[in-house]
Amino acid sequence: MSEQIIERPSPVGGDKAPEPEGKSREASLLRDGWIDLRKRPMFIGSGLLILLLLVVAVAPGLFTSRSPFSDGFCDLSNSLNGPSAGHIFGYDVQGCDIYTRTVWGTRNSIIVGVATSVMTTLVGGIIGMLAGLRGGWVDGIVSRIAEIFYALPILVGGLLIMSMFQTGNVWTVSLVMAVLGWPQVFRIMRGEVIANKYNDYVTAARALGASSNRIAFRHILPNTLAPIIVISTMNLGVYIAAEAALSYLGIGIQAPNISWGLMISDAQDRWLTAPHALLFPAAALSITVLAFIMLGDVVRDAFDPKLR
After folding, report:
1. Alpha-carbon distance 131 to 142, whole Å?
2. Which structural domains are found in the chain, ordered by start?
3. E strands within 161-206?
4. CA distance readout (Å), 159 to 117, 152, 162, 282
5. What pLDDT was estimated at residue 229?
6. pLDDT recorded at residue 4
7. If 178 and its partner were Cys, which of 119, 137, 139, 226 is the partner (CB 3.0–4.6 Å)?
8. Where are the coiled-coil regions (predicted)?
9. Looking at residue 16, what is its pLDDT?
10. CA-based diameter of the chain, in Å?
């Protein structure tokens, strides 16, 4: 009887050891989500629109040759004049060109949305990860503090806090909304950390002698990024709308800064006689908020395995 030789297949990629389960799972999730995103027309459309808005915010001079901060920009003799060949959006009540102000107002709205989203993600993510990992009294105290802020609506809280500032600008508005918005990210991060820290790959890494920091940043953190990316993207549009609402109420961004909310507030009493003064800044605000909400929806659908 001849001896039978059984050859064992070598691992893919030579002798390289397979990646840990958690790392490969997260890499697969992000890769599959990105592949799925590129196939969605809504992602392409909203992405191109947001890219255009970013270009307008960074370089408004590419879209208008005038500056709303230059001398003689506003002329009361042109007050509430309608659209014309040289001024396609017409003039506001102060005789200022609405198109130029709308273009320059894009910068403040984008800055507020991005800055607030970044601050809430960092603060809520760090505190949520700490509470989820440590547990015990640390988790209890931080969770109760987060519940206090979470119970306070962003507009009501913004009214209370912004009333303490004499003047409002993009950074004060962003800071106030970040103070009120971090608990949402905190709750998601805390829940994801608690759900992942008892998984088998974390237990295996701990049994192999991995330090707590390595487990936190190499195994747990990568597996919590997808839901944080989704909620941060969706909140961008919410924060832009909240800034416009605060500015509309007179406690957000204030003159001489430019805000779509301020422009809408100035035009509200004359919308019957001069609807263009209200229509164009309101349309710019609506399109911007819609673009970020659409992007957040499609990112959620792509990165949430339950929705596939």
Report:
1. 7
2. 21-60+89-307 (1.10.3720.10)
3. none
4. 19, 11, 5, 21
5. 86
6. 44
7. 119
8. none
9. 43
10. 109
Give pLDDT, residue 50. 93
The pLDDT assigned to 154 comes to 86
**Integer angstrom CA distances of residue 266 from 21, 70, 71, 91, 230:** 57, 20, 21, 12, 35
Place of tokens 């500056």: 67
- Which residues of the chain fall below pLDDT 70? 1-33, 166, 304-308
Instruction: Please state, in angstroms and rounded to a whole number, the distance separating the CA atoms of residues 93 and 195.
Output: 56
Per-residue pLDDT at 227: 86
| Rounded Cα gap, residues 308 and 303, in angstroms | 9
3-state secondary structure of 75: coil
DSSP state of 4: P
The confidence score (pLDDT) of residue 33 equals 66
Q: Please give the Cα distance from 183 to 120 (Å, whole number).
A: 8
Which CB contacts under 8 angstroms, 24+ apart, belong to 63-68?
A: 63/103, 64/99, 64/100, 64/103, 64/104, 66/97, 66/100, 67/100, 67/104, 68/96, 68/97, 68/100, 68/101, 68/104, 68/258
Angle (CA) 288-293-298 rounded to 5° is: 130
Among residues 176, 194, 57, 54, which one has the least CA distance to residue 120?
176
Rounded distance between C-alpha atoms, residue 305 and residue 293, angstroms: 20
Give the integer Cα–Cα distance in Å for 43 and 146: 33
Whose CA is closest to 98, among 64, 62, 57? 64
Note the pLDDT tens digit of each residue in 190-221. 998 998 887 777 778 778 877 777 877 887 88
Which of 277, 267, 265, 255 has its CA nearest to residue 108?
A: 255
Q: Dig out the tokens for 211 from the structure.
A: 């330090």
**Contacts (Cβ under 8 Å, ≥6 apart) of 259:** 105, 108, 109, 243, 244, 247, 252, 253
Q: Which residues face 97 on adjacent strands?
A: 91
Burial class from Cβ neighbours inside 10 Å (0-12, 13-18, 19+) for residue 71 reads exposed
